Amino acid sequence: MTTIVNPQVPFTRPIPGGLSPGRTITIEGAIPPRSDRFAINLQCGSADIAFHFNPRFGDQCIVRNSYISGHWGAEETSGGMPLVRGEQFEAEFKCSEGHFTVNLNGKHFCDFPHRIPYHKINHINVDGDVNIRHVTFADA
Predict the structure, then answer these.
(1) CA angle 5-61-131, nearest 5°?
(2) Which residues does the UniProt record annotate as the domain Galectin (predicted)?
């Protein structure tokens, strides 16, 4: 297990050991009271985003998407907005063979199918109106 403590946002870091089925990335942080949006991106280098996780408080939804070869894919927005401005949160991204499972504050939020093979994902990026306490990379 590897943990990054109190990283400055925005930040981009390599994912230690890459991703494989059973690996989990957990992000613990706090959402500022006036936050508009933030993004957690699982990237393939600096160009492609395999999984863009983007809470948008003004729209009251969490957009999920991918950015491949210079183009955004189809947005997924179902599930509402379980995150609350001014509160702490925990977001867990678990890699499986066919998709990511996302749990927010210990509850299942969504599954996001792999649009890029998981073994190509090698960086995490967090940007926007959010404070991060811990980013933990763990094996099953």
Answers:
(1) 20
(2) 11-138
CATH number at residue 131: 2.60.120.200
Express each pLDDT in 20-67 by its tens digit: 999 999 999 999 999 999 999 999 988 899 999 999 999 999 999 999
> 6-23: per-residue pLDDT in tens?
999 999 999 999 999 999
User: Which tokens in the block code for residue 68?
Assistant: 């491949």
Looking at the chain, the number of H-run helices and the number of E-run strands are 0, 12
Range of the domain at 98: 2-138
Burial readout 111-120 (b: 16 or more C-beta within 10 A, e: otherwise): ebebbbebee
Give, for 56, the enclosing helix (H) or strand (E): strand 48-56
